[in-house]
């Protein structure tokens, strides 16, 4: 047995100890009993629309499809498919006037938390999480991501839009109804900025997109999990989390705004296959996922959107928190092998 | 009510939304029932020394004091006060020969995980955690931190020594016996490197230590928690965690190696007071702490060691993990006020 490896992320100056000697097999995580979120009246279930702020976007069922509305009095509609509402306790709030719109320049130590914080109710069905969702419903979810991204990223005080999902109480989902969140921020967050800078540097040096190169490398290798006509899914070389995987489009695009109808369908299928595989393999673990994308049009050459999925199977403790170096007890190669087999079986 | 604030760390490019509108009072965290670590045979309790690898350092009780030994056959001794043992599942392992000692240069994407990973058993008494420990015992713990730091940092393949403590299952302490951990790494971890660079830059520009300036600023302000002859304790301006606090020595020193006997005593007293206050205020919450220090002698002008304590009262979810931006629901000013009152009462 040789040494554990300390691996660097493709782009970020982020190092992870792949500590196989303390390793467990991926399936060893499966038996844990998970704490459940409190039950009671669900604010997100149909019939309780009046308990939330008015929606900013509603997809109404309409024949075999949906009709989009921004009707302020949306609580009249009970036949919705997807509903996006402002977060009752927003971390970021919209500016109240023109003055505060201008006050968003990044100063040395503080900026006002101007922006948006929304909750996307993914389905009228409480438990319709992506692993088990109808494909048509998951397509609506992706469509709604894109609609909100388009709307929010056009505002002058918005510099980034983070679209993410927390699944399970241990991953921070205090409410159990299937939902995602959208946060629009007044500055580009650190991790995204670091990725933008590194990919821009790579592009200047090589006239190539670093993510397209990563796809080429990972497609044929031991960390590949799934490939279809539109997407490649793999466990990243320096996975920070056990069973982590990334979903990346083959088509070079910096953001989600130009997804075609067939791209949306393929993303819904890919999400369902991968999250379904994870659920089956590790007993419906808590997880977080987040889209990484570029708002700035200048980034269209060098940035490449993708979705990072972080199963929550370990705890970041004193070492990780005080050093910014991580320990992962499952090799990405083993994670990929198990996920690949589970998904294809 | 104005906007929430997005605040920047003193040194790091790390931004935190202080989201008071979703805020809870610090004491709201107090009622949660905490999951306990499994009970059973404790590997760290006296009488079970044979179940662990041989110690690398033992403090034996000796009259009214202690006697230090590196006796390889330490399992004969039952009268120890502190025992440092190699971790059974080390993330980093010592090199086996001269060749691998040289192989530790940081390459582009991987380095072998050469180093050390040790467990410091803080007391023969299972539950003697710092909040409730005898002061004399806590002084031994600090002494042992210094002894191991001196020993490990002298090795040529060691570039950093992380001394940290996980308290409670939710903070990653899978064993409940009072213990700390020490990890020696073959590269300087990201967070420490960023702090070193930023403080060096500040020193070049101002010929002053940035941490000495932070102490000056925080001593008289609303985030001060405790001050005694040797230490200042405060909630940092851009606290990432609810109830986070830092303990920093008034004397400018880059590392722990020159602590005097009275410094050690004062640190033990300060630790006990602050962790005792936290325990009382928030019902013995899980927490992590980690020392930040410089190994390199060149840093002695510009770096200033300190201890960062992170209570685990919130979950980093999809937003934090995919953006590197944080949301903290307790203002550092409120955290400081509550901790100050609890400690002084």
Characterization of this structure:
The structure is a homodimer of 345-residue chains. The first copy, chain A, contains seven helices and 15 strands. The model of chain A is unreliable at 101-106 (pLDDT under 50). Chain A has helices spanning 98-102, 135-153, 190-206, 210-219, 261-281, 318-323, 332-344, and strands at 5-8, 15-18, 57-62, 65-69, 80-86, 110-112, 116-121, 160-167, 179-185, 224-227, 231-234, 245-249, 287-292, 306-311, 326-328. In chain A, 26% of the residues lie in helices and 23% in strands. In chain A, α2 (135-153) packs across α5 and α5 (261-281) crosses α7 (332-344). Chain A has an eleven-stranded antiparallel beta sheet with strand order 4-3-5-7-9-8-13-14-12-11-10.
Keywords:
homodimer; 345 residues; alpha+beta; HIT family, subunit A; 2 domains; eleven-stranded antiparallel β-sheet; 15 strands
| Biggest beta-sheet profile of chain A | 11 strands, antiparallel
Uncertain parts of chain A: 101-106
How much of the sequence lies in strands of chain A comes to 15-25%
Number of helices of chain A: 7
CATH architecture of the largest domain in chain A: 2-Layer Sandwich
- Give the rounded overall mean pLDDT of chain A: 91
Q: Report the count of strand segments of chain A.
A: 15
Distance between the termini of chain A: 32 Å
- Reported by name, the CATH topology of the largest domain in chain A is HIT family, subunit A
Helicity of chain A, in percent?
25-40%
Q: What is the name of the CATH superfamily of the largest domain in chain A? A: HIT-like
Provide the domain count of chain A.
Answer: 2
Determine the oligomeric state from the structure.
homodimer
Shape of chain A, please?
A: globular
Counting helices, strands and paired strands, the structural category of chain A is alpha+beta
Order of helices and strands of chain A: EEEEEHEEHEEHHEEEHEEHEH
CATH class membership of the largest domain in chain A? Alpha Beta
């Amino acid at each position: 047995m040789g040494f554990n490896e300390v691996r660097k992320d493709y782009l970020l100056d982020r190092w992870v100890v792949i500590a196989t000697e303390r390793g467990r097999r991926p399936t060893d995580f499966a038996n844990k009993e998970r704490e459940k979120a409190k039950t009671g009246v669900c604010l997100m279930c149909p019939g309780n629309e009046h308990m939330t702020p008015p929606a900013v976007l509603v997809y109404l069922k309409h024949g075999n499809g949906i009709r989009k509305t921004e009707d302020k009095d949306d609580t009249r509609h009970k036949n919705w498919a997807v509903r996006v509402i402002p977060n009752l306790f927003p971390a970021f709030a919209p500016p109240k006037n023109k003055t505060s719109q201008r006050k968003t320049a990044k100063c040395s130590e503080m900026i006002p938390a101007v922006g948006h914080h929304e909750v996307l109710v993914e389905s009228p069905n409480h438990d319709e999480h992506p692993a088990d969702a109808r494909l048509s419903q998951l397509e609506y979810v992706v469509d709604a991501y894109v609609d909100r991204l388009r709307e929010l990223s056009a505002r002058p005080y918005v510099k980034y839009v983070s679209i993410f999902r927390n699944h399970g109480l241990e991953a921070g989902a205090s409410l159990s109804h299937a939902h995602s969140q959208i946060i629009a921020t007044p500055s580009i967050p650190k991790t995204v900025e670091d990725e933008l800078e590194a990919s821009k540097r790579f592009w200047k040096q090589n006239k190539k997109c670093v993510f397209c190169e990563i796809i080429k490398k990972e497609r044929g290798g031991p960390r590949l999990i799934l490939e279809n006509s539109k997407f490649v899914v793999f466990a990243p070389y320096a996975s920070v989390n056990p069973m982590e995987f990334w979903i990346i489009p083959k088509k070079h695009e910096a953001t989600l705004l130009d997804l075609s109808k067939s791209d949306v369908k393929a993303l819904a299928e890919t999400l369902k296959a991968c999250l379904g595989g994870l659920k089956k393999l590790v007993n419906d673990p808590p997880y977080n996922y987040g889209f990484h994308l570029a708002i700035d049009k200048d980034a269209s050459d060098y940035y490449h959107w993708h979705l990072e999925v972080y199963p929550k199977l370990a705890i970041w403790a004193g070492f990780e928190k005080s050093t910014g170096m991580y320990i992962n007890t499952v090799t990405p190669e083993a994670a990929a092998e198990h996920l690949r087999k589970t998904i294809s079986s």
